[in-house]
Amino acid sequence: MGVDKSHVDDVARVLELARSAADRWEVVHSAFLTPPVLNDALMAVRKLSDVGALISGGYSQAERCRLSVGHVEAIEAGSIEGGEAGYPGAVAALSVSGNFMFETASHGDFLGSILGTGVTRDKVGDIIMQGERGAQILVVPELIEFFQSSLVQVRNVAVQTTAIPLSALQVKAPRVDTFKSVEASLRVDALTSAGFRMSRSKLADLISSGEVRVNWKEVTKTSMSLKTGDVVSVRGKGRIQVGEIVMTKKGRYAVELTRYL
């Protein structure tokens, strides 16, 4: 399977970084990438000889990650030292703390304030919500001092932005609901309506409005087929993942679905 057309430019930039770093026996890091772009870039880099790659997101469950690339021996050494966080020094963590007891702030509020400083999205990784205490954010290390002085308010709440070690990240295990559904087809409208327990007509409206994505790509047709491993997200409702698919004796599909709550 080739690179998705919408990812070609991003993957080309990563490949250029990888070749240059390997020639100089250095390790460099891409911008923060979305999961589908990261997957395409990783597959492309692995086709290069003597070039290694390591996913660096700051913690094991990170969604937005940097791809650390360089000579395979340097990457292997860094993977041992960095562990689940990725290559050492590729990602930094910040605590954005304030009193949100009386004015709740969402993930979008924090992201809006971050981008309001003038920083582009590819410089920021995951945002880990901490309830009424604020949030923790993953960023490129060179912007630590900038954020400490510039990120001072989220919504109407004054915040203090401070650097913290990756070991201080407080990541809660996701709440999930796993169940099986028997469907006549593997169409996105059938499985997603079952996963979110909504009518297919309602889901069709959401697809028409651009609210539904499969593997982070917008869905345009209700007839699109899903497979094991696909992740479907619906704006404002969360996401589901397609698990094991088994054909029943009656020719229907018994599908394991996991909904992230």
TrEMBL record:
**Protein known as:** RNA-binding S4 domain-containing protein
Decide whether keyword Glycosyltransferase is in the record: no
Instruction: Name the PANTHER family for this protein.
Output: MITOCHONDRIAL TRANSCRIPTION RESCUE FACTOR 1 (PTHR13633)
* Keyword Methyltransferase belongs to the record: no
The entry lists its GO molecular-function terms as: RNA binding
Gene3D superfamilies recorded: 3.30.1370.160, 3.30.70.330, RNA-binding S4 domain
- Domain spans labelled RNA-binding S4: 186-241
Alphabetized, the UniProt keywords read:
RNA-binding
The family database entries (Pfam families) matched by this protein are listed as: S4, YlmH_RBD
Against SUPFAM superfamilies, the record matches this protein to: Alpha-L RNA-binding motif (SSF55174)
